[in-house]
Design goal:
Layout (H helix, E strand, L loop, with lengths): L8 E6 L3 H12 L4 E7 L3 H10 L9 H7 L2 E4 L6 H10 L3 E4 L2 H5 L3 H9 L2 E2 L9 H8 L3 E10 L8 H5 L11 E7 H7 L5 H9 L6 E7 L6 E9 L3 E8 L10 H15 L7
Parallel strand pairs: 1-2, 1-3, 3-4, 4-5, 6-8
Antiparallel strand pairs: 6-9, 7-8, 9-10
Helix pairs in contact: 1-11, 4-6, 9-10
């Protein structure tokens, strides 16, 4: 007799914003060995309305019920909700897949907690290129990592770092560097914009040693990120130009696709890349 096919992984989506809805649509359309189990949201009625308008039949549940119904919990909620979602998923021994990677930097105690609960925390590549290469280089010695991010000004408006310093991007006519520092500080100051910097820091030499520049650039129409790495095993530089989502210019379309690719890697019989 042929071996039994594995049961599909049940995926719960915590947060139904731009990324959460893109994931829900893709899972509802059908991805082998994956099943949309449920969603949770701070506004359940709005979430039900959004799913209904998209023709997606999936329950909107309280967080505890979502975790109970899911093998994998994908977090794509505002950073303020991160801790509650993460704690619930980890305590239940689930696979926890966070997109608010900047928030994870402030809650790394969850990694030790996950080990004790049999849970896993898996960070998708998201909107960044080259994390495989950075992880490989980190098995040796990395001397430096630099990330330069350029975004249309509309994608940065409202960032706490800019608001606190009274930096206005209205009518910007030329590229303006709005931040220079490390990935940890950048992730805190731009929580909706540079989760990629946090992921890069975790993959390589740590967020404190990962240099970050953020530019508001009216000459670009895509969210552009360039990584430069100097290591004992290789020197490499990579650039990616992400198409912003029509619903939210802070988010690239590739982010949701990266989550789907990461989920496929949990169940596929062939997995490419580390």
């Amino acid at each position: 007799m042929p071996p039994a096919r594995p049961h599909p992984l049940s995926v719960g989506i915590a947060g139904l914003g731009t990324i959460g809805m893109a994931l829900a649509r893709r899972l509802h359309a059908g991805v082998p060995h994956l099943r949309l189990a449920a969603a949770t949201s701070g506004d359940a009625d709005r979430a039900r309305a959004r799913l209904g308008a998209a023709g997606i039949e999936a329950p909107v549940l309280p967080l505890a019920a979502l975790v109970g119904a899911s093998d994998v919990v994908v977090e794509c909620a505002p950073a303020a909700a991160f801790r509650g979602i993460a704690e619930a998923a980890v305590a239940a021994g689930r696979i926890f897949m966070p997109l608010s990677v900047g928030a994870l930097l402030d809650h790394l105690d969850l990694v030790d907690h996950a080990a004790g609960q049999g849970a896993r925390i898996i960070v998708p590549t998201g909107a960044l290129i080259g994390l495989d290469a950075v992880r490989a280089a980190a098995e040796g010695t990395i001397h430096s990592v630099t990330l330069v991010s350029r975004k249309p000004p509309a994608g940065l408006i409202g960032a706490p770092y800019l608001v606190e310093r009274g930096i206005s991007l209205a009518g910007l006519a030329a590229p303006l560097r709005v931040f220079a520092g490390n990935a940890r500080d950048g992730a805190r100051g731009f929580p909706a914009n540079v989760n990629i910097a946090a992921a890069l820091g975790l993959a390589g030499i740590g967020p404190e040693r990962t240099a970050l520049e953020i530019w508001a650039d009216p000459t670009v129409t895509r969210n552009t990120h360039r990584i430069e790495v100097e290591a004992d095993s290789a020197r490499f530089a990579m650039t990616i130009e992400n198409v912003p989502s029509a619903e939210n210019p802070r988010t690239g379309k590739i982010t949701a696709l990266s989550v789907i690719a990461c989920l496929r890697g949990l169940t596929g019989t062939l997995k490419i890349g580390t």
